[in-house]
């Protein structure tokens, strides 16, 4: 399969930004600016309380809404958590799992990332699974080992048919929110590695069809070059997704 036949996805990760009323305005503006840009799927992953107004504002547009985390149990005594069924009922279509900020600050491990991914997929959500090395790992020359291991552990036990609704976001942790971007060649090298690991775990067909995003200080200035790489099928965008005009320019860069 050629790169052109894979689904390109440009997803925003708003993190802990935007109140519900601000979300409504930002989604509407993003939808307006990206209308008719069918060369990629446009997704905004918003805070839990923003999902319902965001879904309302996105109705009838090409913008899809996602969450930023999900719990792995169906229901029960898990104060502060949100289940996959709850997300589905709000109209969320996607969920980010395993973001490095959750791994760094909230004790997320490959085991819990795997459990959340499995629960989300079984419920019918599409998962944007984030992984990537930290600076020390890159400097020690073990990026390949770390990323291969994360890919295998995070996907453990996920049946082949559910891989259709998995997106992997390669996010080198040293590039997130730092203004440092992986070079297009660094991004390509690791995205290609992830595709190879998925081919070994499943088969070539699944690996070739998989959307692999790059994330980490992607912006309207560097997106086109990153997205031109053969194994980079989109972006997961933090800071630049908060400004609809900037985010729309990244969507434009994905139209080629
Ligand atoms: P950034 O964030 O674009 O602000 O670096 C990316 C992410 O955390 O997904």
Radius of gyration: 17 Å
Proportion of residues in helical segments: 40-55%
| List of distinct ligands in this structure | 2-phosphoglycolic acid
CATH architecture of the domain at 1-91: Alpha-Beta Barrel
Mean pLDDT: 97
Strand portion, in percent?
15-25%
Classification by helices and strands: alpha/beta
- In this structure, how is the largest beta sheet organized? 8 strands, parallel, barrel
**Low-pLDDT residue intervals, each spanning 5 or more residues:** none
SSE order in H/E notation? EHEHEHEHHEHHEHHEHEH
Counting DSSP H or I runs of 4 or more residues, the number of helices is 11
CATH class of the domain at 1-91: Alpha Beta
Oligomer: single chain
Distance between the termini: 18 Å
CATH topology title of the domain at 1-91:
TIM Barrel
Number of strands: 8
Shape: globular
Description:
With 256 residues, the chain is an alpha/beta fold. Among the domains are: 1-91, Aldolase class I (TIM Barrel), CATH 3.20.20; 132-212, no CATH class. It is 41% helix and 15% strand. It contains eleven helices and eight strands. The protein has helices at residues 20-34, 51-58, 84-90, 100-105, 110-123, 135-139, 143-154, 184-201, 204-209, 223-227, 244-253; strands at residues 9-13, 41-45, 63-67, 94-97, 126-131, 166-170, 211-215, 234-237. The chain has an eight-stranded parallel barrel, surrounded by six helices. Helix 3 links the parallel strand 3 (63-67) and strand 4 (94-97). Helix 1 (20-34) runs parallel beside helix 2 (51-58), helix 1 packs parallel to helix 11 (244-253) and helix 7 crosses helix 8. The longest helix is centred in the last third of the chain and has 18 residues, at 184-201. The radius of gyration is 17 Å and the shape is globular. The mean pLDDT is 97. Bound molecules: 2-phosphoglycolic acid (PGA). Residues 13, 171, 176-177, 215-218, 236-240 line the site of 2-phosphoglycolic acid.
């Amino acid at each position: 399969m050629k790169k052109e036949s894979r689904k390109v996805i440009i997803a925003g990760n708003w993190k802990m930004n935007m109140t519900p009323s601000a979300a409504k305005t930002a989604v509407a503006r993003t939808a307006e600016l990206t209308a008719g840009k069918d060369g990629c799927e446009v997704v905004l992953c918003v805070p839990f309380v923003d999902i319902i107004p965001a879904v309302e504002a996105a109705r009838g547009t090409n913008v899809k809404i996602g969450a930023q985390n999900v719990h792995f149990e169906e229901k029960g005594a898990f104060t502060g958590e949100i289940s996959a069924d709850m997300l589905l009922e709000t109209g969320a279509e996607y969920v980010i799992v395993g973001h490095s900020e959750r791994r760094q600050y909230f004790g997320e491990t490959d085991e819990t990332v795997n459990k959340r991914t499995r629960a989300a997929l079984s419920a019918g959500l599409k998962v944007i699974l984030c992984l990537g090395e930290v600076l020390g790992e890159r400097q020690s020359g073990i990026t390949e080992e770390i990323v291969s291991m994360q890919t295998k552990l995070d996907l453990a036990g996920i049946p082949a048919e559910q891989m259709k609704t998995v997106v992997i976001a390669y996010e080198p942790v040293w590039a997130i929110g730092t203004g440092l971007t992986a070079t297009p060649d660094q991004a390509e090298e690791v995205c290609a590695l992830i595709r190879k690991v998925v081919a070994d775990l499943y088969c070539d067909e699944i690996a070739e069809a998989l959307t692999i995003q790059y994330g980490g200080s992607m912006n309207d200035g560097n997106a086109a070059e990153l997205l031109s790489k053969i194994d980079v099928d989109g972006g997961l965008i933090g800071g630049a997704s908060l400004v609809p005009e900037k985010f729309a320019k990244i969507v434009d860069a994905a139209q080629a």
